[in-house]
Amino acid sequence: MTDQDESHDARAGVAFTDIYVDDDIVDRVSDTLRSTRYVKGERVERFEAAFADRCGTDHAVGVNSGTAALLLSMQSAGIGPGDEVFVPGHTFFASVSPVLHLGATPVFVDVDPRTCTMDPDDLAAKAERAENPTAVVPVHLYGQLADLDAILDVADDHDLTVVEDACQAHFATRDGHTAGASGDAGAFSFYPSKNMTVGGDGGMLVTDDADLATRARRLRDHGRDEEGVHREVGLNYRMSEVSAAVGREQLDRVQEWNDARAAAAARYDGLLAAVDGVETPTVADGAQHVYHLYVVQVPAADRDPLRDYLAARDIETGVHYETPAHQHPAVAERVGDVSLPRTEALCDRIVSLPMHPRIAPEDVETVCAAVASYFEGKQGGVAESEPDDPADSGTTESDPEEPTDTSPARTDGGREESQ
């Protein structure tokens, strides 16, 4: 959506997210394209410096995805075959795939069902039993930091490398920690739906470790050092100059957008507080949530019917994530049977409601009214997916010659989310 499109007609439904582009960003991209310097230039360096300053770290390394930032964080820290790496069971697949790619073994940790982040007590118990505990990847999920104080204590006790997955938590804070800045390295994603983007895929690695940063810069460019010598085998994970130009412009605005997300979340919280059957997000004491996603919990039996009910009213939703990380076939064949009861129960209960910085108050009210209507109708035994009148959903009669989507607003967040 561009800044010329200011319409928020409730009859048109409520979109799950909103990609925003204005003239300043277009101008930065145009200037970069006219420069004809598209890779390995000053724009990436300036973006890296500004991002490191914003995080409070000594170094930042721009890459082409959040997944690359995670992979290079781990690889540059020396994680490899035989190492055991602790990861939460509830996360996007990219928190786990770099561990597997490096030949290390993921050890899955259950979550705190209130915050949906890694449970430090389960981490401590599994670290005690591990044969070769090497690293931990606390995931700051949905925009809220994991309990870093407790996790860092466990890491100190077992000499674990800490790689923060901050791909969904740009500049969130908790107990004095800023996302990405307290571990050995932190990884951010700039996928288009994130709190800030680079106009496509992109990522950033941050660290205070000069040696780790130097190795990450080498590995992102085919293992090549500043003299052009290939010191080790690397691949191409470079960030483009165009991406950096967009990112630098967005960096100046991300706090404003985070504040807007928090205001929308507060409105959701207030309107849903009285809805029996809905549990709104829990924000930990001392935490500043940046609401990459607004995720509620409902009874498992109601999750899919609720999504269908909202879809029939042209309200988009997602599920982040329906399949626990340890149950994906690519992981299960490597780790075998793993039981994480809280993670598995959580994955059946979560629903992501529309959230973005430009969501209008009336759109939040529309969503909440529909959620309340579903649960009120269920109590009365009359909840139905389809509205009484097609006009109520903002849809029109479809052309019989055109294919139709039976639930156009029910997006699959697990497939749409990336980093």
TrEMBL record:
Q: Name one GO molecular function term.
A: transaminase activity
Q: Which domain of life is it from?
A: Archaea
Where do the TM regions start and end? none
Q: Name one Pfam family in it.
A: DegT_DnrJ_EryC1
Q: Which controlled-vocabulary keywords does the entry list?
A: Aminotransferase, Pyridoxal phosphate, Transferase
Record organism: Halomarina salina
Q: Which family does it belong to?
A: Belongs to the DegT/DnrJ/EryC1 family.
How is this protein named in the record?
A: DegT/DnrJ/EryC1/StrS family aminotransferase
The ranges of region (Disordered) come to 376-419
